[in-house]
C-alpha cells in the first residue's frame, strides 16, 4: 500500500487489519454486518487515535460504496459464509469497487486437499483440532465443515477469474485455507 491509496475491507470483524492498514494508506473503509463488531472496532480505533478509517455497516451483497473506486480490497475468513452463487456475485461486486489494476487479497476457508480422500482428510483434521483445542473446538470445526459453504480451490480460482481478476499468486495451508493475491484486469 502507498500513502495516497485507499483500501476496502469486507468482513472487518474487530477491525484489526483495517486499523493496521490505516497506518500505510490514506483511507480505509471497514465494512461488517455486525453492529457489535463495528462498535468494538470503533473503540479500538478511538483508543489508538486512528482517524482515517470509516467503519460501515454492510456485507458482500449489500454494501454500497460512496466515493471513488478503491485501490485495494481485502476479505479474510468471511466469504465462506456465502454459497458459491452468491460468492460469485460478491466477487463481481468487489471487482466493481476497485480501480483498474486494483489489488484484491482473499484469505478464506478453501479446500485444496484431494477430494477423493475426503474421509481420511477430515478424520485427521478433526483429530488434530481435538488435540490442539479440545473436543469442543473439534466439534466447532465439524459444524463448520457440515454447515458452512467452503469451496474447492479450482472452483474458487475460476470464480475469481470470472469476476475479472488475475490470480497473481495463491497459497494453501493445511488443505483448508487459501490465500489469493489478485489484480483487477
Radius of gyration: 17 Å
Largest sheet: 8 strands, mixed
Order of helices and strands: EHEHEEHEHEHEE
Average pLDDT, rounded to a whole number, is 97
Total helices: the number is 5
- Tally the beta strands: 8
Approximately how much helix is present in the residues? 25-40%
What is the SS-derived class? alpha/beta
* General shape: globular
Query: Approximately what portion of the residues adopt beta-strand conformation?
Result: 25-35%
N/C terminus separation: 18 Å
Low-pLDDT runs: none
Question: What do these coordinates show?
Answer:
The chain is of the alpha/beta class. It is 39% helix and 30% strand. It has five helices and eight strands; from the N terminus they run βαβαββαβαβαββ. The chain has helices at 16-21, 35-47, 84-97, 118-147, 153-162, and strands at residues 6-10, 27-32, 53-57, 70-76, 98-111, 151-152, 165-173, 177-184. Strands 1, 2, 3, 4, 5, 6, 7 and 8 form an eight-stranded mixed sheet that branches. Helix 3 links the parallel strand 4 (70-76) and strand 5 (98-111). The protein starts with 5 loop residues before the first strand and ends with a strand. The mean pLDDT is 97.
